[in-house]
Amino acid sequence: MTDEDLHAHLLELGLEAARRAGALLKDGRPADLGVAATKSSPIDVVTEMDIAAEKLITGYLSEFRPTDGFLGEEGASSPGTSGVRWVIDPIDGTVNYLYGRPDWSVSIAAEIDGQVVVGVVAAPMRGETYHAVVGQGAWMGERRLACRPAPPFAESLVATGFGYLTDRRTQQAEVARLLIPRIRDIRRCGSAAIDLCDVAGGRLDAYYERGLNPWDLAAGDLIAREAGALTGGRPGEPPSGELALAATPGLFDPLQHLLERFGAWHDGDPGA
Ligand code: IPD
Hints:
Layout: H1 3-27, E1 37-38, E2 45-46, H2 48-64, E3 69-72, E4 77-78, E5 84-92, H3 94-99, E6 105-112, E7 115-123, E8 128-133, E9 138-140, E10 143-144, E11 157-160, H4 166-179, E12 185-187, H5 192-201, E13 206-209, H6 214-226, E14 230-232, E15 244-247, H7 249-262
Parallel strand pairs: 3-5, 11-12, 11-13
Antiparallel strand pairs: 1-2, 3-4, 5-6, 6-7, 7-8, 8-9, 9-10, 13-15, 14-15
Helix pairs in contact: 1-2, 5-6
Bound molecules: D-MYO-inositol-1-phosphate.
D-MYO-inositol-1-phosphate binds at residues 73, 89, 92-94, 161-163, 190-192, 209, 211-212, 216.
């Protein structure tokens, strides 16, 4: 199989897995949905539907690709032997999903030898599915995506997010306090994958957040890059849990510079 054929095959599987999980989550959400477990803190929640959707996705993908590896938010973890690993967030935006809010997504990326080559983000309540294949652009359905031309910095619309740990979110609020007088406004949608797709589709000028996990970031980062956005972390670094940033090119450097100055890459002082 050529690289191109392999990428097309992985894309087809990723799209179908996301479609199936999206339908399960949208149509099968119990009216009395509750919290099944908590993770890093009491507000970092998992629902039975996160677990069911991850099972559906890994089950579907392994039928066709039994030797691939997995990394999933709800515990899927196996190295595989094929060189392909699937990085899965069955519900990115679990708190929104729990409350019946529409901004949640299914995020599925395929890596080959550690490089993301395919990204799929389905946002069923928006009726939108985003995808990208490395080198082939970013798409929402049939529509090719391009990030917005950069506005003056003071007119930029920037999204961010807040982690679940008190020391982290306190510092994140401080960074937002310093940033907001310098830009048009801030958005916090509650799904990092959707924020990254919104940078790709021109609904945001930029997005940044500290503390993301690989499954929050993998698919959306490729989609943003393939739409022409620049992505990174601290100056000179790739996006990571320390800091992830995506922006239309004219905004990337000034925003990265400010985030460095404001300390967006570290947590607050636990004693403060
Ligand atoms: C969360 C969302 C949210 C971000 C959090 C993530 P989850 O993912 O992406 O927007 O602010 O940092 O943990 O827990 O809903 O999969």
